[in-house]
């Protein structure tokens, strides 16, 4: 099996939780994909970085990140996976709100102004979290070249309607789930 198949197995074995849950979008579902169980796992995290780099290999960007918390481990995995490729990436974290102390930055990490960046998310149903990150990145002067998620739960149309290319490593069908 390759990285893509290996990561899918981690997702189906560790991240898919059955039972009633309310998603961040407010939608009620019969199952939840808790990707932090995968993105923070010692064997799965390196796969996350490689799979997401492969998914976006034809896009030109030099920094990756998104709204904290879902995007943070993805960005760090991609940062580490990119190091040996000759195309190293920086990572950044978009806070949900600006800090009231210190440097009062909303985006932590290397400066994104004037840079081509990729916005990532672990899973997205409505696109609202990743689009919040996109708005903050644009306000900071970054050029957002696209959005990539590990699992698409339906956000593609909303992200594309916002004028951004959108890719997902896995669909619900790939994981044997129904919307």
From TrEMBL:
InterPro entries: OPRT, Or_phspho_trans_dom, PRTase-like, PRTase_dom. Its EC number is 2.4.2.10. One of its GO terms (molecular function) is orotate phosphoribosyltransferase activity. Its cofactor is Mg(2+). Residues 94-157 form the Phosphoribosyltransferase domain. It catalyses: orotidine 5'-phosphate + diphosphate = orotate + 5-phospho-alpha-D-ribose 1-diphosphate. Signal peptide: none annotated. 5-phospho-alpha-D-ribose 1-diphosphate binds at residues 95-96, 99, 101, 121-129. HAMAP family: PyrE (MF_01208). This is Orotate phosphoribosyltransferase. It comes from Micromonospora azadirachtae.
